[in-house]
Specification:
The complex is a heterodimer of chains A (256) and B (275).
Chain A: E1 3-14, E2 21-32, E3 36-40, H1 47-54, E4 62-67, E5 70-71, H2 77-86, E6 87-90, H3 94-97, H4 104-114, H5 120-133, H6 150-162, E7 168-172, H7 180-197, E8 200-205, H8 208-214, E9 217-222, E10 225-231, H9 232-237, H10 242-250
Chain B: E1 4-15, H1 18-26, E2 38-43, E3 47-51, H2 58-66, E4 73-81, E5 84-85, H3 91-97, E6 102-105, H4 109-112, H5 119-129, H6 135-148, H7 154-157, H8 167-179, E7 185-189, H9 197-214, E8 217-222, H10 225-229, E9 234-239, E10 242-248, H11 249-254, H12 259-268
Parallel strand pairs in B: 3-8, 3-9, 6-7, 7-8
Antiparallel strand pairs in B: 1-2, 1-4, 4-5, 9-10
Helix pairs in contact in B: 5-6, 5-8, 6-8, 8-9
The chains are: A alpha/beta (256), B alpha/beta (275).
């Protein structure tokens, strides 16, 4: 299997009063085409910083990120635009990530227009199809985000990410704010979309119970480092690092 | 037989005015939950979970029990607590009961705490509002309670403001406030939903310990059966403003009856156990 994403020695630092704080500390990992790599860890362990650095939304202090063979840090012009199209993101809070003053149709089609992926009339049809693909209706295009529930808003964010035909999607706590029933529906949707489109996911979550359902492999982060990385079943059966063991122990143990 | 501490009989909550109704209609995706004929009881020392999807009416029920409903909503029916009908009792009676006999932990500690007051003082204020005249003694009680709620280094953290604490620490401050007067019933509304799993585990552990130690009754509101199943002996399942199932938690896990209960149970069933 070929790696779509190769991260080597990645370091992300943020300025602080007493010297820079290291959020990601020498992380190396690969994500194969079509797989879901889950990134788990406590709040503050560096998961989101890693996700953002991979997308070139924050600038790493050191290390490299290669996407489909090319170094993400040195991309510019047309190559950077292509990368922006091919790698997408869905954030945790759709209330904050959807512009409240844009209609849903405009939110979803913005990327199509920017990347000139379809002429005007086609774009409308494409938006309608996307909304239906994520379980909404074509008529929802004319409504505003506030008219939707949390789960529906997350579907809009997913439709927006998929509108530009990406290959790779970072899902940054994309289901964490949803209640358990809606969460199960959105996870099923993500799995179906992955199968239909051959997508590769970086699935960031603090909750291992969610990860068990969707991930091919799991990387556990602690204080900026990846302390364990294993296939999902293996990690759940025999967690090696104390961090992974602590995360597993934190899952409420239901007395079935 | 243990006497009933709380008896809710035919509780209905309606959107009161035409304006409120119109607003509810405009927010079709997030309707104002309305309770329909809710009846259940909680005995002293009992742990009861209130399980339901978002929008099913869980929080409205919790607020109705405390007499804290927004003015646009009106409640009918009976809520008997400690021999008082909370819906009919004057506000002065409810205020006397709240905190002292009936306490609440809210979901979002950052909005439940005063951003401009140190957290220790906020906990001490509970004691002072209920008759503790001696300020140092109120503060000592507050520090002791913060410590028992699991706040590490309570004395130093008590001098901080809410924004200087983590989400888990803030939730422990709320827990300390609610437990300070040794209530007979604690209502905890999604107390850990905003926390990450490791912190959630710690907060729940302290909540369970305090419940056992005090023999306090607990109504734990959550959409997550995992949280309820590890804490509550009995579970009420809510769906569209009604209680659709009221059973022992163990029975709910093995034989959920209502389709809505089945969906909530399936949502937390481990992968390997799913049929």
């Amino acid at each position: 299997m070929t790696s779509l994403l190769e991260v080597r020695g990645l370091v992300v630092e943020y300025p602080a009063r007493d010297g820079p704080t290291r959020a990601v500390d020498d992380v190396s990992l690969d994500i194969a085409r079509g797989e879901t790599l889950a990134l788990v860890g406590e709040s503050g362990s560096g998961k989101s910083s890693l996700g953002r650095a991979v997308l070139r939304l924050v600038k790493p202090a050191a290390g490299s990120v290669r996407f489909d063979g090319s170094d993400v840090r040195t991309l510019s012009g047309g190559a950077l635009r292509q990368f922006r199209r091919r790698a997408q993101v869905v954030f945790q809070d759709p209330k904050a990530s959807l512009d409240p003053r844009l209609r849903v149709g405009d939110i979803v089609r913005e990327g199509i227009d920017i990347h000139r992926l379809a002429p005007r009339a086609d774009a409308d049809r494409r938006v309608a199809r996307l909304l239906e693909e994520v379980g909404l209706s074509a008529a929802d295009a004319s409504r505003f985000p506030h008219a939707f529930s949390g789960g529906e808003r997350q579907r809009i964010a997913i439709a927006r990410a998929l509108a530009v035909e990406p290959e790779f999607v970072v899902l940054d706590e994309a289901v964490s704010a949803l209640d358990v029933l809606v969460r199960a529906q959105v996870l099923a949707l993500l799995a179906a979309l992955q199968a239909a489109r051959g997508l590769t996911y970086l699935f960031i979550a603090h909750d291992l119970a969610v990860v068990e359902r969707i991930a091919t492999r799991v990387a556990v982060m602690q204080r900026g480092r990846v302390v364990e990385c294993a296939p999902t079943a293996a990690l759940f059966a025999t967690p090696v690092s104390p961090a992974a063991q602590a995360l597993l122990a934190a899952i409420p143990r239901i007395p079935w | 037989m243990t006497p009933r501490l709380l008896a809710v009989d035919g509780l209905c909550v309606d959107a009161a005015t035409a304006r409120a109704t119109a607003r509810a209609a405009a927010h079709a995706a997030a309707p104002v939950p309305i309770l329909r004929d809710v009846t259940f009881a909680i005995k002293a020392g009992e742990t009861v979970g209130l399980l339901g999807a978002s929008g099913s009416g869980k929080t409205t029920l919790a607020l109705a029990l405390l007499g804290l409903l927004p003015t646009a909503l009106t409640a009918r029916g009976r809520v008997l607590f400690d021999g008082h009908d909370l819906l009919a009792a004057p506000e002065s009676t409810r205020r006397m009961l709240r905190g002292r006999r009936l306490a609440m932990v809210f979901q979002e500690p950052l909005t439940a705490l005063n951003p401009r007051q140190r957290v220790g003082a906020q906990v001490a204020e509970v004691a002072r509002a209920h008759g503790e005249r001696d300020a140092p003694r109120a503060m000592r009680k507050a520090l002791d309670m913060l410590d028992r709620a699991g706040l590490p280094d309570a004395e130093a953290r008590a001098r901080r403001y809410p924004h200087e604490l983590s989400g888990g620490e803030r939730q422990r401050v709320l827990l300390a406030m609610s437990l300070l007067l040794d209530p007979a019933l604690l209502i905890a509304d999604e107390p850990t939903s905003a926390l990450d799993v490791t912190v959630q585990a710690h907060v729940l552990q302290h909540l369970r310990a305090q419940q056992r130690e005090r023999g306090m009754a607990l109504l734990l509101v959550s959409h997550d059966l995992g949280v309820i199943a590890t804490t509550c002996a009995r579970t009420l399942v809510m769906h569209e403003g009604r209680i659709v199932e009221d059973v022992a938690t163990r029975q709910l896990l093995t034989a959920p009856e209502h389709p809505c209960s089945r969906a909530l149970v399936d949502a937390v069933r481990p992968v390997a156990r799913r049929a």
